[in-house]
Amino acid sequence: MTPLLYLVPVLGIVGLIVMFAKAGWVNRQDAGSSDMQEIANAIAAGALAFLKAEWRVLIVFGLAVAVLLAFSGTLVENSDWVIGVAFAIGAFISALAGYIGMNIATKANVRTSQAGRTSLAKALSVSFTGGSVMGIGVASLAVLGLGSLFILFYHLYVGETGNVNGLEMEKALEVLAGFSLGAESIALFARVGGGIYTKAADVGADLVGKVEAGIPEDDPRNPATIADNVGDNVGDVAGMGADLFGSYVATTLATMVLGREIVSTGDNANGIAPIALPMLIAGLGLVFSIISMAFVRVSDDNGSVQKALNIGNWGSIILTAIASFPLVKWLLPSGTMSIRGVEFVSEDVFHSILLGLVVGAIMSAVTEYYTAIGKRPVRSIVQQSSTGHATNIIGGISVGMESTVIPIIVLATGIFLSYKFAGLYGVAIAASGMMATTAMQLAIDAFGPIADNAGGIAEMSHLPEEVRGRTDVLDAVGNTTAATGKGFAIASAALTSLALFAAFCGTAGISSIDIFKADVLAGLFVGAMVPFIFSSLAIAAVGRAAMKMVEEVRRQFREIPGIMEGTAKPEYDKCVAISTQASIREMVAPGLIALLVPVIIGFLFGPEVLGGTLAGVTVSGVLLGIFQNNAGGAWDNAKKSFEKGVDINGTIYYKKSEPHKAAVTGDTVGDPFKDTSGPSMNILIKLMSIVSLVIAPHIAVQKHEASKAPVPPKVVLVAKK
Amino acid sequence: MTPLLYLVPVLGIVGLIVMFAKAGWVNRQDAGSSDMQEIANAIAAGALAFLKAEWRVLIVFGLAVAVLLAFSGTLVENSDWVIGVAFAIGAFISALAGYIGMNIATKANVRTSQAGRTSLAKALSVSFTGGSVMGIGVASLAVLGLGSLFILFYHLYVGETGNVNGLEMEKALEVLAGFSLGAESIALFARVGGGIYTKAADVGADLVGKVEAGIPEDDPRNPATIADNVGDNVGDVAGMGADLFGSYVATTLATMVLGREIVSTGDNANGIAPIALPMLIAGLGLVFSIISMAFVRVSDDNGSVQKALNIGNWGSIILTAIASFPLVKWLLPSGTMSIRGVEFVSEDVFHSILLGLVVGAIMSAVTEYYTAIGKRPVRSIVQQSSTGHATNIIGGISVGMESTVIPIIVLATGIFLSYKFAGLYGVAIAASGMMATTAMQLAIDAFGPIADNAGGIAEMSHLPEEVRGRTDVLDAVGNTTAATGKGFAIASAALTSLALFAAFCGTAGISSIDIFKADVLAGLFVGAMVPFIFSSLAIAAVGRAAMKMVEEVRRQFREIPGIMEGTAKPEYDKCVAISTQASIREMVAPGLIALLVPVIIGFLFGPEVLGGTLAGVTVSGVLLGIFQNNAGGAWDNAKKSFEKGVDINGTIYYKKSEPHKAAVTGDTVGDPFKDTSGPSMNILIKLMSIVSLVIAPHIAVQKHEASKAPVPPKVVLVAKK
């Protein structure tokens, strides 16, 4: 091993120290009046109640799977019972990442409202620092966890043998895959559960509050308003934190597994350079994300928040790209390397990293185009709102489907080129490059819901109009970053899945997945169907839970006297309880589908059919993910367009006009698309790939020697007479 | 060759004679009052105007492609310039099939209204006979065209050589593929153009007529009502006729191409039994469909129309299945056959045929479950209509996505088992079995829009209430048969595509499609995206055209005095012109995508990447097809449920209630789903496969000898020291 590897966990610890410092700063900010604090405490309590309820379910599930994995690990030679422990650690850290995010978000929200009384600059500072705590926390935990576990497993399995490309290393990485599986499993449940929670509350609150009772959003008279604000924290913050933690780990792991297969002539890391590289790039990305966060500031109320975020984002990306060049050059062998027959040199690896960054940037840009106010797609939905609800829906679905074209072509080109550069390692390292600045990405993503909450608190505690104006500026930017973040997530998931998929094939001992075989093609069909049933379950769950919420809110309006006059307080906790119970119950079925389908198909039909299934899941999941995220985002902003008035055939329409009502319908349909099922797609496809990778040794078609075994003797064909 | 083959075109001619007899019978029925005839003539004129406009565009396109094909056919040894002629014939017959259907439908509609004045039995008799004319016509033309062209090409290329498994036969079948390409190309344009036409008129008429002006459906005061009724004929009749003609030909052809590859020891058809079998089964199916049509009758007004149709349908299926056993047994070799390494005997082929029939039946049954009034899926949408437009839409989307599960599992099982039975030939012959009773299927399908039109004419010419009641009974059954027909169409398309796909691989000289290769996987992604952009274009086209229609109808209501009082006639022809122009213009882009994508990918990236693309198109097209068809059907019947009143939480809601308005929104969204983009999916996937098959000789990786070439000498591996 190389001492350089110790740098990885050290960087993780440094990140955690920075995180604590930033969290301390946020906590020291003014938390406002007692009214504001009371509301904030109710939100925090609701969020914590959800997390506790969720954990109660997940701890049972987690322990069961950990035991099962530990047992199964003893059955094959290239795994170990330790995989169960790795799984538990991954699951625990994933839950912890969600908790850290939610904890800081429920503190930063009210402090952002209070800061909004002074200036936009101050409000941005508080909300973005809150987001940064989560971003740095998630990335640091990932780097620390992966780095230290890899070092541990290296010593445990490879150790003295020094056989860094053999069965020993394969075993170390297989056990490490358990860590990733733990992380991604929790991520799926957190994303789906949180997504159902937040949208049930949001849709329920809107349907009765805005549409039936005619009271504004976040009005304290609406019994579902606290649940709605809790939802932002458990779905958009805790769910997203677990999601990106899982992605980050999965991407890095997949690259490491493929790195083991690289045949080379020696490097500067005692032969493990290709395995160490993704972890070191992750470490670099963390450092430059932290540095670039200093750039995110606006001078006064006229500063452009979007521009400030862009500077920070691009700063971290460019710095990481520049720094990775000497790292790649120095670390990797100077000669030719090869993986599964594709030859490449260190520059090719660097080009793959750059390509990953470019693909991620284009995906984000396309997403922004399709969901931004004033651009052609959203404008077309606005126009189609003039002829009613139905044409608005048709318009949104059409825009969402159209929005798949460029991302898919970009993605296909990315796969094609990164493979040309450096084979499957190129594809994987492109994803690693894309994910390197996760800390910054997540900080930008998480600041949105914090600002959203801050606006809600400002409304509920009757702060001056200008405060809400400032939080609205932040919130609007947050909507855009949420959309672009999703485009980015799905791109990285596609590349990561492909890498995991390749790792799976290696471990399962298959060298091709031939869809020309009927059984593999049947697997492809079944796999492609999974994202449909998954989405169906998630969307239906939101619909059902929202209907319960509607009934409860209607009941309270009916039965609690004085509620509409503001003289009696609604029973917020009842609504919180409805969202909590519904989301916990409804997250189980989609989660189990994701976990069980690969196991059932793998054991019944073998690895090649499972490979076909994974390809189906990936392709269909990416398409449905892009479709749902972008349709939802476009509907949302079509509705928002009415706030300033829109011109339809020469007439200006505002809120409460008939076309606006149609636009509200579209937004409500889009809510579960963009915040429940859509963003779950990227976890779904990665989780199913990781499950397959973990079971691969059990369903392998043949015991195979590690791929750096001596090159077999050349063969010639001789015809037998 | 075997003289038996001459039976195929003879059966086609017999079919055409029966068709003319039935058409004559329909024409001799009473066409009703002059009022009724005037309306019927307006509908017929509008439909003919559309077909003429469509043909003007398609003739240019068709000639261009024919010339291009003829030229390309001279470039490779296993094709010929005659392929251009075959293409032109296929295109012409496809257009003719559409014309025949539309012509009889526009005569049967008014005669069904008139017959409805007497009894339900009589009305069913007229409308079903009208549908039968189309069904028999389409199937007869297919059998006649395929049979006579095959005989011709056999004499042209194989002739004296007698080499029925070599390059000569490959050439004959390749040229015959041109016929299928012509048929399927026209089918796509007809389906998409007709689908846009009918839904633009329907949505436009409903949005202004029902929703804004509050007048009933088919009210003569609505300027779009003639266009709406024309739409039923050009979309649901002419479009569907061309569609099923194309499917029928493609399925038979694919089986013939694979049949050539079968290695056997001699049969009762001079070595071409596996090639002749699908044509003979098609002939059998035609005969038994005609016979079973006699069973479709109800005794009086209380008879069950659905039951009568079921008896006819199952009669034809069971008779065909029984008769195919001795045919298969006698025709095929008694010994073992093999295709690409899979060995089988004649019983296995029979089992595949049976399996195809079972898969088709299950697909239809599942479709019926998901779209029928009173069943759980439609009931859930009804319930979700109580909380508004948005939850109705969420409910429908969720139901549509869920409805993919069982069909995909059934289909995957069908692929898996039929392959086990008889290799790729088994998959293809299963599709042939499923399609054998196309004449009956189409008769049942086409009677629906005839009954729908009859109801419209009854309404517009103010016939007594009871007449509309009788046509409504027929129309309701027609809605169910339309839905199940689509389930059937998508199942057969999936199997056919797989067979074409296999035929393509054979001709292109590739023996695997390894999605583990990065470029093939990239192709899979791009292919899976095509149905999304195709659907997006089709849906958006309906939205745009409907908006134009809405504006025109609003203008007429505003500018023509006396229109609402019924004293002035609306300008029906303006609306007809809008639908015609819009649909012709908007059908071009999706059509070109389907035709050009395989050509571009095939020539740029080669056959294996194209294979990946085809797999992507097929999987994603099948899923989106099922999703869109069933969501649309479920929304439609959720809306219809309100006619008799629905119970939501103890309250009974009827038409014009708030939940009903939400249900109307869902129905309108579902219209382009189920009648434009959804049913186009099955043509899309087949057309792209046929295009690939036709270009296969040009992009083949190697010149290859026909697969029945002498077995190559065995090889052994010898290590070179």
From TrEMBL, chains A, B:
Task: Say yes or no: keyword Cell membrane present.
Answer: yes
Regulation of activity is described as: Requires K(+) for maximal activity.
**Recorded GO CC terms:** endomembrane system; plasma membrane
Question: In the record, what terms sit under GO molecular function?
Answer: diphosphate hydrolysis-driven proton transmembrane transporter activity; inorganic diphosphate phosphatase activity; magnesium ion binding; potassium ion binding
Q: Which cofactor does it need?
A: Mg(2+)
Please list the reactions this protein catalyses. Na(+)(in) + diphosphate + H2O = Na(+)(out) + 2 phosphate + H(+)
Q: Which UniProt keywords apply?
A: Cell membrane, Ion transport, Magnesium, Membrane, Potassium, Sodium, Sodium transport, Translocase, Transmembrane, Transmembrane helix, Transport
Q: Site annotation (Determinant of potassium dependence): which residues?
A: A482
Q: Where is the signal peptide?
A: none
The way this protein sits in the membrane is described as: Multi-pass membrane protein
EC annotation from Swiss-Prot or TrEMBL: 7.2.3.1
Source domain of life is Bacteria
Q: What GO terms in the biological process aspect are recorded for it?
A: sodium ion transport
The compartments listed are: Cell membrane; Endomembrane system
Q: Membrane-spanning regions, if any?
A: 6-26, 57-75, 81-102, 123-156, 275-296, 308-332, 352-372, 393-417, 423-444, 488-510, 522-546, 587-605
Enzyme class, UniProt record, top EC level: translocase
Q: Which residues form a coiled coil?
A: none
HAMAP family tied to this protein:
PPase_energized_pump
Its quaternary organisation is: Homodimer.
Tell me its family. Answer: Belongs to the H(+)-translocating pyrophosphatase (TC 3.A.10) family. K(+)-stimulated subfamily.
What is the stated purpose of this protein?
A: Sodium pump that utilizes the energy of pyrophosphate hydrolysis as the driving force for Na(+) movement across the membrane.
Q: What is this protein called?
A: Putative K(+)-stimulated pyrophosphate-energized sodium pump
By which gene is this protein encoded? hppA
